[in-house]
Amino acid sequence: MKNLIILFLIIPLLSFKVVDTNPLIGRWRGDDNGDVGYFTFYEDGVVSIEIDGNVFGGKEFSFKGEKATMTYRFNDGVTPFELDFIITILESGQERKSLGIVQIVDSETIRLVMNSENEAVRPSGYDDGKGILLHRVKRKNGK
Asked: Could you list the residue range(s) of the whole structural domain that residue 85 is in?
């Protein structure tokens, strides 16, 4: 009888799905003054950027003549949400970070503001007209 009760308690727990809480995973399209680019955020923390068919970032790419990888860190535990791009030189482990913020406009649109001038300073808001709107092209499951 005791085993039967335990079985009835365990079965519902097995039916729960783990919900992916990272809303960035997938492929996003942005238009910056006529220049169209794509950001692809992967589940393993890798990110790639494609502009005019040229891919920058990903698991392995050439950065200033050295093999590198580009990853991202997303922190939704603060406001505004933080998004950092990290380029890591594979041989030395040396890192270069670009700090940014991201606003989840809705499930299909995000606003991304990255600091390209001073990589050690994070942008503080979205009001200054900087940044780019990205629209979801494909979710991680291909839809």
From this structure: 24-139
